[in-house]
What does this fold into?
Amino acid sequence: MHIHILGICGTFMGGVAALAREAGHRVTGCDAGVYPPMSDQLRALGIDLIEGFGADQMALKPDVWVIGNVVSRARLTDGTPKFPLMEAILDAGAPYTSGPQWLAENVLQGRHVLAVAGTHGKTTTTSMLAWILEACGQQPGFLVGGVPMNFGVSARLGQGAGFVIEADEYDTAFFDKRSKFVHYRPRTAILNNLEFDHADIFDDLKAIERQFHHLVRTVPASGRVVVNGLEESLARVLHQGCWSEVCSFGAAVSDFTAEGEPHDFAVLRGGRGAGHVRWALSGVHNQLNALAAIAAAEHLGVPPADAAAALARFENVRRRMEVRGTVARTGGDITVYDDFAHHPTAIRTTLDGLARRLGSPRGRILAVFEPRSNTMKLGTMKSQLPWSLEQADLAFCHSGGLDWDATEALAPMGARAQVAGNIDALVHQVVQAAQPGDHIVCMSNGGFGGIHERLLKALAG
It folds into this structure.
């Protein structure tokens, strides 16, 4: 079968492409933004990529068109379609489906699906869970919204019964406004956390809680819902009804708890020692992610002690506090990191985790970020930015393409915050401010204009 994927370079659709290719299908695709690591991964798999959404791609005549949720019926200011290929598909009456629907019908059917949902930590927790199952000999399939460094790819079919998937609450496609995760029908579901996000499609937190409950409704009675006991929003979700075993973590009275520092802690099951995790990761958020993954793996028969031992060899995910390079300076190297954080809570969590890891005394933390997600572009959470950047000694914001005033939003930070309208100006600001021993954290859910390499080059020069 030949499938052509619209929006192929998104983390999810790129994973679908990799799975389809591994299953023996001919896969091609197109996108407007082609950047690493997904573009590199797809080309390495022999998948042809086309830039843009031109209607001339109809000449490919695939068996089915798989539509990513980046595609819409929007029109440009001159009245022409933003996605002419989609219009041509509709005009021709050609067969099309969404990525989640294709995945459910062609990959997930008959597997023990372990779905990881939550506002934050989905990618990391999914990667942890997949690695635990792999290290314990279960050869799982997986689809992760990033590249787990233990595997080097974001998706694979696997040989075992289990399939681990990052379960996103964002909508499926322009023709299917349900959350992606309702297609997956998991037997094990992790509800990691839940707060307001995706302001472009959800009116309020209650609307997102409703979608999470739709996910809970699909878990069978023999299934397990692994839930963060610290989250009131998730308590409200379960209060709407739950028909499966509930396994809690995180809160003082939970099935799974942790005792010790986030980088070296005991795992308790029902208050009794059940394992120990000692690893390179930092932050309470990663400790909670670990508990969730251990609880989910137990449902597939992995003892908590074995799961905890496996996490000692967990190598994290690309773009999760990934060191992109260092520049030698007298008095201390300058380190440049890449991180996917884009929601204010995620930004705060990332910076807090780094500050805790560095300890005291430490070099300065310079936060470099762009409000790129749809929620941030709308300005819905701009007032939370000063709060999210409290651990940063200096903050630098790329304001290009925003309809709100980033300078005004960051005004409570005073001289600690600077704003630039383009990447060149942003790089200049950071380089002028950088000092020996600094830690520069670049945060974006996109390519960020290749700012990491540009910073390293400029600092070295």
About this structure: The first strand starts at residue 2 and ends at 6.
